[in-house]
Write a structure and sequence with these properties.
280 residues, alpha/beta, Rossmann fold, two-stranded parallel ribbon, globular
Length: 280
């Protein structure tokens, strides 16, 4: 909407979603789009999902949110069990909001219930490929109730840390008789199991999700951590933790986690993984 009262500004109001991913230059542009005043900027963000760039302090950029923010804690997408697991990934990490205040997961809850996440430790990479294929095949089996509609293959997603692993799982699923496609490479994935990277999954949701390759070499990404300086390592590790949190929260209903070798340090203890004790 074009501003009428002040011709120096382009709009009366600005809505900002996924604000945790914006950089300082983005915020400078947004601040100059609208005059400061009541309802000038509406900002939605989740600092726990910051997987790009560095934290930004809005007050230093002329955007005042102190005392004007409201924290939302009710999740409508994923089940309480999956939410409990996703939040456990954040345990022990220090997250800050857009004013460098402490960010907490206290009180997070879900409106839905479902099965506990399933954890599959595999003997080796080949065994993991077999187990992922077996799980997908089980989900795609005709339902026992003839009145129940079969599961749409495109509602199943296999999420990997990188593109090389994504390609490997697509090929392995095909060799095991399961039609799968990379979301990035195809304009339409209808009728196919979707395989995509964790980064690509941001903003999406699927009925059933497999987090594949969640071992200590892939998550956190050893290559990513090696590529940053020692001073940037803490922030890089925080982004890796946030990335796994984002991936885990893509599942509406069923969630399965697989790994071979040493499991990722970000998965936490078995008691933290177990969704049976999740808050209602």
């Amino acid at each position: 909407m074009r501003a009428e009262a002040d011709k120096d500004f382009l709009t009366n109001h600005v809505l900002v979603d996924e604000a945790q991913d914006l950089h300082a230059t983005h915020w400078a542009l947004l601040r100059n789009l609208v005059a400061e005043g009541p309802n000038d900027l509406f900002i939605a963000e989740d600092s726990h999902q910051r997987i790009y760039g560095q934290p930004v302090v809005l007050g230093r950029l002329g955007i005042k949110i102190v005392g004007r923010a409201r924290r939302l804690t009710l999740n409508y997408r994923t089940t309480a069990q999956n939410l409990h697991f996703a939040v456990s990934i954040l345990s022990g990490a220090d997250y800050k909001d857009l004013e460098q205040g402490e960010e907490s997961t206290d009180g997070y809850r879900s409106a839905r219930l479902g099965p506990n996440p399933k954890f599959l430790e595999c003997d080796d990479a080949s065994d993991e490929l077999d187990k992922v294929a077996d799980q997908v095949r089980e989900w795609l089996a005709p339902p026992a109730d003839p009145n129940e509609a079969p599961l749409d293959p495109s509602s199943i997603a296999v999420l990997t840390r990188g593109k090389t692993d994504r390609t490997q799982f697509i090929r392995a699923l095909g060799e095991r008789g399961i039609d799968a496609r990379a979301l990035d490479d195809n304009p339409s994935t209808a009728g196919f199991v979707q395989v995509l990277t964790m980064h690509r999954s941001k903003g999406m949701e699927f009925a059933r999700v497999i987090l594949a390759g969640i071992d200590n070499a892939h998550v956190p990404s050893a290559a990513t951590l090696r590529s940053v300086s020692e001073g940037e390592r803490a922030d890089a590790l925080l982004r890796e933790r946030s990335l796994l949190y984002v991936a885990a929260s893509r599942a509406r209903d069923a969630l399965v986690v697989t790994w071979s070798g040493k499991k990722s340090e970000l998965l936490g203890s078995p008691s933290e993984q177990d969704g049976s004790s999740c808050p209602s």
